[in-house]
Amino acid sequence: MCLFCIALFQTRRGRARPELVLSEVKGGAPNASSGSTWPGWWPWIASLAIFLIWVVGGIRSQPGFYEEVVMREFVGRFGETIHRPQPLLFYLPHLLHKFAPWSVLMVVIAFFGLRLRNWRLRSVFREMFPETFWLLCWSIGGLIVMSLIPSKRVDRIFAVIPPLCLLLAAQVAPRNSCSHGPVDYPSRSVGSAETGHRPVVTKDTLTPIYRWSTVALLLAILFTGGYTGWKVITGYRDHRNALAIFGRNVRHEAEVRHWRYEIVSAKDEGLLLYLRKTHFVEPADAVTEWNTESLDALVASKEKAAVLMRDLTAAALSQLQLNEREHHQQGRGYVLITR
Question: Given CA atoms 8, 12, 14, 19 in this order, what sign does their dihedral have?
Answer without folding.
Answer: negative
